[in-house]
Write the structure tokens for this entry.
Amino acid sequence: MGNSDNVRAVECIAQKLKHKLPQLTFVVDPVLGDDGALYVPRELIALYRDVLCPLATLVTPNQFEAELLTNTKITSLDTAKSACDELHRIGVPNVVITSAVLDSASGDHTLHLIGSELCLESGAKHQFAIAFPRLSGYYTGTGDLFAALLLAHYATLAPQFAALGALARACELATATLAGIMQATKLHQESTLVNVASNLPRGSRPNAMVRGFELRIIPSRHLISNPTPSFQSFSI
């Protein structure tokens, strides 16, 4: 959000909405940084953690953001679960770490989504993961798209589940759509015949290459309206 005033403005709006609509689903995507680099002033870490996260129904940090919010180095499913538990401790019932590179035989070719849903009344908890292949390239807006998809699916599914389980299913559906759109985007980029160099930092990526990687959302709208899960969640 750029500065503390924006965080406080969102806090005020969220509190008013939750007062009028106690069942409101409020998703916080804590956009702090990625790949070890902060996008925002460091002071926003504590504001997200202490101000916005306790108001959230669901938070969707990436690996780096989850580590910042919980002061937990995520290297395995167990440490990812610990990070989720820390976010539960401050009052977040649903946590999704959207993508994490874990220490494993598969190296960095496989990413993991780690989710955890907690019933605040009973203390019952369901923790799960989804493994999916890393797709090479430079994609902008995948986190925003995933958060929007997850919100839509979770808000629809939650009333249908008497117990835990809605979050895992919502993640399967959102992951299916995002993976399909990213694959369509990769194929489109390849058709432009623009060379793609590896490990280019932000700000040094050629415009023609960046345009080729614009997410193919409209041509892939069938994947949004009718997703077919291709990566299944498993309990951890």
